[in-house]
Amino acid sequence: MVAAAKSIASIMKSPKRKYNHYRAVLKDYKLYLGSGLSRTNAIKRAKSKKDVWSVSKNQAKEVARGANKNGLPIHEIDQNRKGKYFHYHPYKRTPKMHSFYGKAQ
């Protein structure tokens, strides 16, 4: 895992990016990214209550929607924290996970 702040810029600039989704872990209010995931594997990870980071808002919403198709995903950003990320939760926050996207605010 690599600190998200360091890896997001290189992912976004890469003209030959292979993946739109990446494993994510939130630890001590810091986001870390791991290896790339296909859309199918990103949704499987989300269903397993594990976080995902995506390259765009629409991609992140798609993962959260795929994790729970019973309703619309919940869009939010954590308040009062440096380095916060916009993200989605699946409908009714079930399963419990974050579908992050973009750069830290």
Secondary structure: elements and pairs:
Layout: E1 2-3, H1 4-13, E2 21-27, E3 30-37, H2 39-47, E4 52-54, H3 57-67, E5 74-77, E6 86-89, E7 99-101
Parallel strand pairs: 4-7
Antiparallel strand pairs: 1-3, 2-3, 2-4, 5-6, 6-7
Helix pairs in contact: 2-3
Provide an overview of this structure:
The chain has about 100 residues and is of the alpha+beta class. It has one domain. Helices cover about 30% and strands about 30% of the residues. It has three helices and seven strands, in the order βαββαβαβββ. A seven-stranded mixed beta sheet has the order 1-3-2-4-7-6-5, sandwiched between helices. A hairpin with an 8-residue loop joins strand 5 (about 75) and strand 6 (about 85-90). Helix 2 packs across helix 3. The longest helix is centred in the middle third of the chain and has 11 residues, at about 55-65. The model has no long low-confidence stretch (mean pLDDT about 90).
Main structural class: alpha+beta
Q: Provide the gyration radius in Å.
A: 12 Å
Poorly predicted residue ranges: none
Proportion in helices: 25-40%
Number of domains: 1
How many β-strand runs?
Answer: 7
Sheet with most strands: strand arrangement: 1-3-2-4-7-6-5
- Average pLDDT confidence is 92
Looking at the chains present, what oligomeric state does this protein adopt? single chain
User: Which strand-content bin applies to the residues?
Assistant: 25-35%
Biggest sheet: strands, sense, closure?
7 strands, mixed
- Please tally the helical runs, counting DSSP H or I stretches of 4 or more residues: 3
Q: What is the N-to-C succession of helices and strands?
A: EHEEHEHEEE
Overall form: globular
Distance between the termini: 21 Å
Keywords: Plasmid
